[in-house]
Amino acid sequence: MSGNEQRYINEAFESNYIAPVGPQVELFEKEFAVKTGISYAVALSSGTAAMHLALCELGVVAGDEVFASTLTFIGSVSPVTFLGAIPVFFDADYKTWNMDPGLLAKEINACAERGRLPKAVIPTDLYGQCADLDRILEICTPYEIPVIVDAAEALGATYKGRGAGVGARAAVFSFNGNKIITTSGGGMLASEDKEFIAQARFLSQQARDAAPHFEHSQIGFNYRMSNILAAIGRGQLHVLDERVRVKRQVFTKYKAALQDIDGIEFMPEAPFGKSNRWLTVILISPEKFGTDRETVRVALEAENIEARPLWKPMHLQPVFNPQITQITRINGCKKAQNPQNKKKQYPCRVVGGEVAEDLFDRGLCLPSGTAMTKEDLCRVIEVIRGCKK
Ligand SMILES: Cc1ncc(COP(=O)(O)O)c(C=O)c1O
To answer: pTM higher than 0.90 for the full model?
Structure first.
């Protein structure tokens, strides 16, 4: 917390709006829209909820295909399965670690020939770096395929000078506890389309029709953000720019201390944008460094320093099964059994995947908190340097 939040929390208590509605929620949405440069926004209980609502509004239904990044967090794509639709996972490219637009263009052309286009495309802005949105829009727009940017990790980042998610049909943000700013848990769906956001707001509040009693002509969700959490969000917005500055400084310090080591590379920054460097991520090449990523992670853990591998690509997740390709669906997902764990698996398709697999094998997310001291950073750096063989 930055210190600004308590003032707004007090305002929420004084107004006695302790509910998923209230003045703080409305103000948070307005202030967020100004900050991001996306005109309309609805505050929700999570980024996952925001993605779910976006896909509902696009009319995604069972059997549809939705294209997404494979190198991402599950919350980006689980909403596809909520609707019984099929995720198609796209590989990353080495320049950005985000959805490879070349692969996207090829696959969309192939889909057009087959006469079965995806219902939506969801590029993730990975670790605070924007995907090449203009290129993705150029590919999707002729076919009228809507693009929903998963900017959960990229608040404060820019793409060609504009904010993350600007220009897409809608963008999803997360205020989970680990994000650059947080409301403990929460999310935002933002769009230039006023109606799209108004309808998402309606669906997020149990789709209650205008009537003095409780009248419902659609099924909705209980996804609205609470007034108290919105108060925290308002306080956090004040420090977003500063957080980006410090995150980038953390990256610069790691880079200065480790870039001379053979076998260590840093996540590149694409020339079209400015990453918020939510996490500093390195690649360790064992043939040059002498030890692999896992050995370094364990060495850090032995010093009580938490570091994590990259997101495990979605196409490698046991919950998704690319083998289930022939799907006749009427209601929801085809159920398949994984013989090992007897858990339900979901069908998917994969386009490429080798780059994401390589990044996952070699990648390590370093501690990147904005409260890290010089000494904290030195400890991490020393352990990593000590692993070099
Ligand atoms: C890329 C990405 N997408 C979606 C989400 C889901 O957001 P939430 O945790 O708020 O549901 C997250 C973060 O948690 C994320 O990192």
So the answer is: yes
Output the pLDDT for position 334.
43
| Assigned token pair, 97 | 């670690």
Output the CA 183–ligand 1 centroid distance in Å.
13
- Please report how many Cα atoms fall inside a 13 Å half-sphere around the Cα of residue 19, on the Cβ side: 8
Question: 149-163: string of b/e by CB count within 10 Å (b at 16+)?
Answer: bbbbbbbbbbbeeeb
Q: In 3-state terms, what secondary structure has residue 262?
A: coil
In this structure, the residues whose C-beta lies within 6 A of any atom of ligand 1 are 46-48, 72-73, 75-76, 124, 150, 152-153, 174, 176, 187
Handedness of CA 87, 91, 92, 93 (dihedral sign): negative
Q: Ligand 1 mean position to 265 CA, how many Å?
A: 26
pLDDT level of residue 343 (50, 70, 90 thresholds): confident
261 CA distance to ligand 1 middle (Å): 33
